[in-house]
Each structure stands twice: as structure tokens, then as C-alpha cells.
Fold this protein.
Amino acid sequence: MRKLKDSRRAEIVDAALLVAAEQGVKAVSMRAVAARIGLTPMALYGYFRNKDELLDAIIGRMLAEISRPAADLGWRETILHLAAEVRSVARRHPSVFPLLFTRPAVSPSAIMVIDLLFDALLRAGVEPAQVPRMERMISTFLIGYAISEVGGRFSEGTLDTRGRRAQLEPDLLPGHQLLAGHLDAPVDWDAEYRADLDGLLDIVAGLAARDQRRRQPIGKP
């Protein structure tokens, strides 16, 4: 009986993910998902108490696609692995991935990813009291960059960089004028992502070294 219920729950979540992918997250409702798999809306309440619980399950379904890093990876390589996986998930589910920025991490899959980050930060030498804050900083970067990338924030949109600057007088945009050559150059998004992440992890390493120095007894070399 439990296996049957788990199987039906998985079917409902997959249907909800398809509705969200095809029509947007706002289109996800108990009625729409029920219609997708031939159930009555009331039948869904035997598996999910409300829409919020269903949305949390969608997040869990996406994050379950993240593969665990190898046990012998160092802390930095572990975070790089998770970062690549998060970015891949965003690219597979571009219209649904932004849910991660609107809901807390409550699904088992989400909690597991966070725990992997906790473990990596502890192995880096970050003071335990600072680990939750550092995890939030890293997670916010990973999710935010991925959403910006798949959501179109990094695209040219309706105006290229020159067209954007041309909307205002040059003396109103001194920074843009000085950086014009760089702003107009093509961007290697893979390289930029890795450079940004490396910079963030350098900060983590620096804070961990500082914490270790603070914990070292005074007078001990």
C-alpha cells in the first residue's frame, strides 16, 4: 500500500512539473494537475494537503536530479560539483527552477544538498557558527546565477550594449563610457561562472583561515 501511494505521489509530482514547464508555475493548481492524470481535484488531497506542499514536492523532484559528489573529493571540488549540477538542473527546468527563490528548502532532496554544502564548509575549516551563513551565501549565488542565466537576464534583450548606452547622454554614464570596450565584448558565460564561483570559494578559504588563526592558542606557533 505504501509503495502504491509513493508511486502515485511521484506521478502527481511529475504531472505538476509538466504543467509548470508548459504553462508556467502560476498554472499549477490541484485542478490542473488532477486533470493531467485523470483524477478529481479532491483525490489529490489524499497525497498532498495543499498546493504549497505540491510546490515543495516539485522542488524536491528537481533537486533529486543532483548527483552526489564522490566521497573522496575535497571541499572545494565538492562545491564545484554541486554548482555544476545546480546549473544543469536550471537548464533542464528553466520555467520551474525560479521556485527555489520563492520557497524554503523543506524537501528531503533540498535538505540533502544543503547538508553536502554544510559538510564541505566544515571540511574547509569554516567555524561551525559561520557555516549556515556561508551556505546561504553560496546557495544564493548558485540559484541566482542559474535563474538569471535561464531567465534571460544576461541576454541582450531588445537592445545591445551600445543601444542601451545611447538612451542617455554620455556624461550621465561615465562608468559605461570608460568600460564601453569591455561591455561590448562577447561574454564566455561558462568562464564567467567558474571565475565568479572561484572568487566566492577564495573568500570561503580566506574566512576559514582567519577562523583557524582565531582558534589557535595565543603564543602557539
